[in-house]
Amino acid sequence: ADSAVGLCVMMRVRSLDATARASLRAVQAGRKLRAACDGSFSRNVAAALQRADRSTPASFVHPPSGPARALAAMHIRAFSSAAPEGSSEDQFAAAEKEVPGVKGLESVVGEGKSYGFQAETRQLLDIVQHSLYSDREVFLRELISNSCDALEKARHAMLTSQSASDGEAELGITITVDEKERLLALTDNGIGMTSDELQEFLGTIARSGSKAFMQQLATEAEGGAATSQAATSIIGKFGVGFYSVFMVADKVEVYTCKRGATTGSCWTSTGDGSYTLSEATGVSAGTKIILHLKADAENFASESTIKTLVSKYSSFVSFPIMCHGNKLNEIDAIWLKSSGVTEEDHTALYRHLNNAYDEPAYTLTFKTDAPLDIKSVFYIPQVNMEKFGMGKTEQQLHLYSRRVMIQRNSKDLLPEYLRFVTGVVDSEDLPLSVSRENMKDQRLLRNLNAVLTKRVIRWLSDEAKKDAKSYNDFYSNWGLCLKEGVAMDRFNAPAIAALLRYPSSSAADEEPISLDSYVERMSDTHDTIYYLIAQNRKVAESSPYYEAFKRAGVEVIFCYQEHDEIVLGNLGKYKDKNLKSIEVVEPPKMQAAEPDAAKDTDKEGDKDAAKSSDTSPNALSETEMTELSAWMKDALKDRVSEVSSTDRLVDSPAIISDHDNAVTRRMMQMAEIKNMGVTRQSHYKLLINPSHALVISLSKARTQAPDVAQLVAEQILDNAVISAGILDDVREMLPRLSQLMKAALEK
Fold this sequence. Notes:
By secondary structure, the chain is of the alpha+beta class. It has a 9-stranded mixed β-sheet, with helices on one face. Helix 25 crosses helix 26.
């Protein structure tokens, strides 16, 4: 018996690396010992193991269901079997890796005593099981959180007791599954519980041992004791998370032994309103929870499912989580660190959160204590999958509390237009609901959203100033999202507008500029930022609306997307400067009146812009212009409301003004406003260039060839409408073009 006890103690040593050879020798010695024993050897060793549990120092006890217990189980099988004498060390090394059984060596002693739950009603237990949580997979998150609290209490006890032996023990969590038997076991070597504590904490729904522990720490702090790390690491507070196991299990067994105690206990329940307490043997310090899974929850007995759930909810808990020899939480919660975080750490976390293989374009670590104590890390991906037709990007900013995920892909932390920002927001004092799936205080959540939104916008502004080229790359991917923000978020629109980038008439090679840089170059006499919607730069520069601005040397922003009309139109002003489309405003009169002086400021150096081959020095007189205008109004009938001369044109014969822009007209068409009783504008104000050769020829042709002049007048109007981008159907003018070509060929 003494030899068996000594052998069992040796098998319980914590450092397996140091005892691998000793274990092999013990097995070989066991064969000789077996030869001298009867067939009850296995039972003798099992009893010796139980005595060893009680006699072995705490520093030698390995976490339950860890490699040591697997090794012990292997030894028992080796002693009770006829293993060949020539077995190699490699064979036993492979046996050491064998996964321990879910049930282990714990067993109930004697008859248990049944109790009814001390919570008010069976109805409360039903609510926890069936109504409290939106997804039953959170049961694993709750169990791991409870184990972390138990481990934190154990660590606190080690530190406060100044026990060197306890301080050497590796604290951790082990998860074991058995798909065939539909079993799941979660084990920790934390503080453990006595039989009375089992009855107090598990026998009473909504009785939180962690909350009581926190209150104890607070009392000690008031008495002058130093604040413990446990005060900021304890997770639980409501006392209901454990009962989420009954969403997936029809029977639950809890084996536990208080650290320093010599006897263990077993708590068993089927979730029917009662539970059984029994004495148990073979229980190491800590707690082991065995779930007998329901038939429709057998997927939770899969190792891959456990790995997925741990990665989803509990990747960043401060204690190692092992499952069948594999560590499941390899990534550190780097947002909680004050220093020592490398780019490689950020890349690893970014890839873990986004299931990505690239590196983040931008990284921000942000900490604040208002409106809550917040620690967060934000990333921006390099690629926007929306550009490839993959649909709208899902928001991937996750809400954590004390390292445990509360909301995945939270839509409340940042507005939708910042959906490209990924990362983690963690707070120790979130006012959570009982299910720990959302916050109770919506006003506080809105304040948190406002704080984070402002910080992200300022972050992007800082990056733009730091490296313009890198920011332009970012903007090419995510600029559309920022434009959404200008249109949707009136409060932050001015700050977001500073992040916009557009090509400009003053910038060569399509180099984008900011609105700030435009304002810096404005003269003191101007109060308007001008822009033009066009398909590309060539179309913009050839637009008749741009001619006067080019001649006057006034910078114009070129916008190549139709939605820019909505974005800039909605913005209206930027830093007290009006934002106007050059299609609907007159050019600056002061500079337009002095074209010769303005030509010298033209960025493109086109000194002959005002002397185009289409412009004649023999402009129509005021009388001729009045007569031509009257004739054209009569010829075009109800298509125009007014015909008048303008001096803003250089190379074009005519333009229209006071019209809906192309984007607005298309939106009206899509909304079928006409069918709702609202008629689109069809009476245009036509402005003609009295110096243009075509207009001068038309003035002569109206008396010499009235039929051709009629066709030319209609075509001039359609050309102006096309220049404005608002012609509904170009096919209407095809017969007229044929007539004009025929008339030209007959001459």
